[in-house]
Amino acid sequence: MNNKSIFLISLFLSIFLFLSGCNKVHFTDGPTSREENATNEKRLYHVVLCWLKEPGDKMHRKQIIEITKTFQKIPGVIEAQAGEVVLSDRDIVDDSYDVGILIVTKNENELQKYLDHPIHQKAKKDVLVPLADKILVYDFKN
C-alpha cells in the first residue's frame, strides 16, 4: 500500500469516527419513563355514537364535533375527540351512525364528574339531545 492509500484510508476512518461520535446512541432495557407512564396509566374510554335526526346533515355533525371540543375544559378529562363516521364496505363495520365521540378519563369517578359537569350537561341539553335520534354509549377501561 502506498502513502496515498494509507492517507485516504486514515482520512476516511477519521471522518467516520468523527461523524459517528456526533450521534447519541441510548441503550435502554425498556420504554422511557414518559412512555412507561403513558402505557401503564389506567384509562377509561367513553365512546359515544350518535345517529342524527336528520342523517348526514353536515351542520348538525359539525355542531356535535365543535361542542365536544369544549369537554377538554372539564377537570378530569384527559382527551375529548369527535369526528364523522368512516364509511366502509366491510360487513363487520357498523357505519350507520353519523358522529363518534371519544372521552378519556382516569377512572369511573372521573367519568362521573365529567357526566355531571355543567359543560357536559349544557351540551347534552342544547346540542346532543335536540340533534340526535339515537345515542349509543360504550365504556371500557384498560
Give a structural overview.
It is a single chain. This protein is of the alpha+beta class and 142 residues long. Helices cover 44% and strands 23% of the residues. A four-stranded antiparallel sheet has the order 2-3-1-4. Helix 3 (58-69) packs antiparallel against helix 5 (118-131). The radius of gyration is 26 Å and the shape is globular. The protein starts with a helix and ends with a strand.
Outline the fold blueprint.
Layout: H1 3-22, H2 33-40, E1 44-52, H3 58-69, E2 79-84, E3 99-105, H4 108-116, H5 118-131, E4 132-141
Antiparallel strand pairs: 1-3, 1-4, 2-3
Helix pairs in contact: 3-5
Q: Care to give the gist of this entry?
A:
By secondary structure, the chain is an alpha+beta fold.
**Poorly predicted parts:** 4-8, 10-20, 22-36
Helix content: 40-55%
Instruction: Give the strand line-up of the largest sheet.
Output: 2-3-1-4
So how many helices?
5
The figure for the number of domains is: 2
The chain-level mean pLDDT equals: 83
Main beta sheet: strand number and arrangement? 4 strands, antiparallel
Q: Tally of extended strands?
A: 4
Strand content: 15-25%
User: Would you state the CATH class of the largest domain?
Assistant: Alpha Beta
What global shape is seen?
globular
CATH architecture of the largest domain: 2-Layer Sandwich
The rounded distance between the terminal residues' Cα atoms is 65 Å
Oligomer: single chain
Using the coordinates shown, work out and report the CATH topology of the largest domain: Alpha-Beta Plaits
Q: SS-based structural class?
A: alpha+beta
